[in-house]
Amino acid sequence: MPPALRSLLFPALVLALCYAGWKSYGWQGLLLAVLMSSFWVLLHFTKLMRLLRAAANRPLGAVDDVRALQGRLKPGMPMHEVVRQAACLGKRQEGPSEEATEDFVWHDPQGRTLHLRFDHGRLRRIERREAPPADPPGGQP
User: Fold this and answer.
1) What are phi and psi of 113, to 5 degrees?
2) How far apart are CA 64 and CA 110, in angstroms?
3) Phi then psi dihedrals of residue 115, to 5 deg
4) What is the residue extent of each domain of the chain?
5) Is 79 exposed, middle or buried, given 0-12, 13-18 or 19+ CB atoms closer than 10 A?
6) Class of the 60-129 domain?
7) For the segment 50-70, what is each residue's pLDDT rounded down to a tens digit?
8) Which residues of the chain fall short of a pLDDT of 70?
9) Distance of CA 90 to the CA centre of its chain
10) pLDDT tens digits, 102-118
11) Less CB within 10 Å around the terminal CB: N or C of the chain?
12) Beta bridge partners of 122
């Protein structure tokens, strides 16, 4: 679904619900529709705040295992679901990027990194980079 259409879907449904409530039960139906819509928005806001509070308690972009996280991700996932899977916020990459595209990086203690690209809040590209091989302890170049 195009992002512009997705952003108009909820307001259109709320207006349709309000109209149906008004036509069916008058001002009491309209009030019920507005209260139901407000409750739905508050439920989702609370859910998002709980997720962000849990993610704020972890270091930025640090996960236990990048490979396990990559296995749970699928293109098209919304950003909040990726944060839920990672249990922390990703580190935003700065650089030349399109207006609606954002790049984030997660890393693990082994040095592997997971680069994710989001387009309009949806996961578009997943790229894992392995840690560079360590030098042998013998000191040979």
Assistant:
1) -130, 150
2) 9
3) -100, 120
4) 3-55, 60-129
5) middle
6) alpha beta
7) 999 988 888 999 999 999 999
8) 95-98, 133-141
9) 10
10) 999 999 999 999 999 99
11) C
12) 78, 119
